[in-house]
Amino acid sequence: MISPYYYQLLVIASINVIMALSLNLVTGCAGQLALGHAAFMGIGAYTAGILTSVYHVPFAVALVAGAAVAALFGLIVGLPTLRLKGDYLAIATLGFGEIIRVAILNMGITGGPFGLRGISKHTNLTLAVAAAVLAYLTMKRLMNSRFGRALTAIREDEVAAVAMGIDATRHKVLAFVISAAWAGIAGGLFAHWFRYLHPSSFAFSASVEILSMVVLGGMESLEGPVLGAAALTYAPELLRGVSDFVSRHRMMFYGALLVIMMLVRPQGLIGSGVKGLSISKLGRIHGVVRLPQMERVTQWLTAAKQRKHLNDSSVSTDSRVVEERLAGLGMSSGTGSRGTGIGSGGGEEHAGS
């Protein structure tokens, strides 16, 4: 049996994985810097929490409604802001996040500064992990689809993508809506696990933390946000047991670890461009985590490539050997009549003698 402490950490890590994967669709795949992603989580959390606690709506319906409302806000915000680029887009999404936080803080139905209480507990580890796996599979299909390739083209060169006929604004807005919907689902799970919501849980610092998970793990990939979310969920808790000094100043050490990581490996723990874990991608992980079996796997892959290369070159090698032997006999593989003349000449000489 898992202790309640680790059980809660696993649930929080699963929710953070959903948030990191959803943000990676916009920031990593589409290349758009968004700093208000926690606002969509707050919209989904408060929508689902109000529906279950005030209106007694079933949890599944409330969870879907929270995702729908978050997606609607993603559409409303995405249409005007995603025409912007770079720092302007970051500032616009940051302003949206602050507007949502202040609105929640001043609304009576949300509990205002006292928070929303009395939410029933429906989230468990099985549901949180299942939602995280579903989010991973969904993002994998999207990134490997035509839609995902269009987002990648927009990220690499938006002008060239538009010249090739890609509707950049439409693709970016759709990615923003999908990302907001998954953030709303994560917010609904968050609300029904802690059973209490406060506007400070969805402030700007929460958006920066989610972005840190994506950057730390490796942007433009799928395994990167998952690994980054797990690492940044457990890192502050692991620092508690090092010593009393580290425990008191664990957030300082936590920030220092992030800075060192960005200096040593700026591309993230896994790196970019990984669109699904496979045996051919294990070499990327081998550069970060040294596993005993990984050396054997790498050697096996190298030997397999060498065997394939030898098989491909065997035909040309055999033909070259034949040509060399024919040349030693004074014959050529391409002139059969010349070979016949040599043989007949030899017979006439023998007959004359």
Structure notes:
It is a single chain. The protein is mainly alpha-helical and 353 residues long. The protein has 2 domains: 4-264, ABC transporter involved in vitamin B12 uptake, BtuC (Orthogonal Bundle); 279-352, no CATH class. Helix content is 73%, strand content 0%. It has 15 helices and no strands. Helix 9 (204-217) packs across helix 10. The radius of gyration is 30 Å and the shape is globular. 36% of the residues are buried. Mean pLDDT is 81; it is low at 273-294, 315-319 and 329-353.
Structure, briefly:
The protein has 353 residues and is mainly alpha-helical. The protein is built from 15 helices and no strands.
Outline the fold blueprint:
Elements: H1 4-29, H2 37-53, H3 59-81, H4 87-105, H5 125-143, H6 146-156, H7 158-163, H8 168-194, H9 204-217, H10 223-238, H11 244-248, H12 250-264, H13 282-286, H14 292-328, H15 336-352
Helix pairs in contact: 1-5, 1-8, 1-9, 1-10, 2-3, 2-4, 2-8, 3-8, 6-8, 9-10
What share of residues are in beta strands? under 5%
Q: Which CATH C-level class of the largest domain is it?
A: Mainly Alpha
Number of helical elements: 15
Q: Roughly how many Å is the radius of gyration? A: 30 Å
Order of helices and strands: HHHHHHHHHHHHHHH
Helical content (DSSP H or I, runs of 4+): over 70%
In total, the number of domains comes to 2
Number of DSSP strands? 0
The coarse silhouette is globular
Mean pLDDT reading: 81
Largest sheet: none
CATH architecture of the largest domain: Orthogonal Bundle
What is the CATH topology assignment of the largest domain?
ABC transporter involved in vitamin B12 uptake, BtuC
